[in-house]
Fold:
Amino acid sequence: MPSLSLAITEPMATGLLLLVFGLLIAFSVLFTRALDRMGIPVVLLFLVLGMLGGSEGLGGIVFDDYELAFRFGTIALVLILFDGGLNTAHSSIRRSLAPASLLATAGVLGTAGMVAVLARLMGLSWAQALLIGAIVSSTDAAAVFAVLRGGSLRVKEPVRSTLELESCVNDPMAVILTMTVVSTLGPALGGGLTWHLALTVPLQLLIGAVVGVGIGIGGRWLLNRAILSTTGLYPVATLAIAFLSFGVATVSYGSGFLSVFATAAVLGNGPLPYKMGLTRVHDAIAWFAQVSMFLMLGLLVFPSRLLDVAGVGLMLGLLLAVVARPMVAAACLLPFRWPLRHVLFTSWVGIRGAVPIVLATIPIMAGIPGGDRVFDIVFFIVVVSALVPGASIVPLTRMLRLETRTPPPPAAMLEMHSLRRLNGDIHIYRIHETVAVSGAHLREIEFPEGVSVLLVIRGDTLIPARGSTRLAPGDFVYVFCAHGDEGRVGLLFGENIEA
Structure:
């Protein structure tokens, strides 16, 4: 009988855990639209709900495994950065590489130093002040992507690409600073790490970029030539490429996060089989990683400990959002002679998220005295730095006239599934009044030999592509185009849009 009781109890415990976790995820997803309208990163809601589901919340889930949280958080960030790279155009990277690189190095170092000084002035020891400064010095890719890509807000270039690229490449500096401070305070962890390791940041970025581009080129070559038995294996293959990129770069003493982003950018800017489906699959994976990661990190927070550090945490969070980030970022952008409104917006949007919370687990795992106090203060800083800039992003974007007016996506999607590379692709065009085919019937248009219109979408109506079909402004047109004919089709239909 005891064995029967155990057999029943364990599945019930697992089922209860999944029930609570599922309810938290469902509740979070349902409220994302409301938060999006306010400009607040939706991942912040996941963090709060994780606290409610924790040992001191309604869910009663006991979780204090900081090492597991660190490893899971790292994997989740790999998935998020890979999705971000797949959706980043090479033109955006070239446009924003210089300012983003300066923000990701000198900006991170300056922010860490200023926060450390402010924390010391507030009565914290130098050890705790330096730890907090290093941990919260970088912006968070998950939170930035959630604000700039997750909702209806569309920010003009080069501001948007600079913020996104900065959030992807500034983690190595924050990691090195955190590990250096931890190793200095606790020699048993690293034994030989000293401050001079901060000089290795450019080398880590270089190694990460080289490894990432190399694996991206190799992965694209392999995917275009391998014949898989089902389309469901293509996302599995790209996930393997993402993990391989992170692993190779990390063991080569490079930046694994930058490597993953570079690999995905190479893949996303070239021909791939099942490309449209791959993009949507990785978008879903990235969102699941964000939700799961922030819920798990919320479980690590014990509300009973937060009252002791609430004052310090809230004040440091405000100073980081209002003073440290804007001053340092504005100084980094001065050499580029950006318009003042671009500088103001970029320096204001310094959202912190999962990365600082993941890094805050390192002092606890290293046994640093007061590590749990540092973790709790970092939690407040993350929440405040997400709320203060986050809630003001939408009105600030409109006040500074940085919002782009992008048309709504088509009401229906049409894609082509293929297990091997074909001689053409399906492209989507939105008919503007100025394009050559606006107002014309399909039979009146002289198409190249390898081009055919497949479907016209007008509002919520699907219109068959017949000769009598007339193209009106605002229509979405799906066109099959043979390789090499894209330029001629573009002259007729205008710019190809992303689905």
Observations:
- Residues 1-8, 188-195 have pLDDT under 50 and may be disordered.
- The chain is about 65% helix and 5% strand.
- The beta strands are 424-430, 451-458, 461-464, 476-482, 496-497.
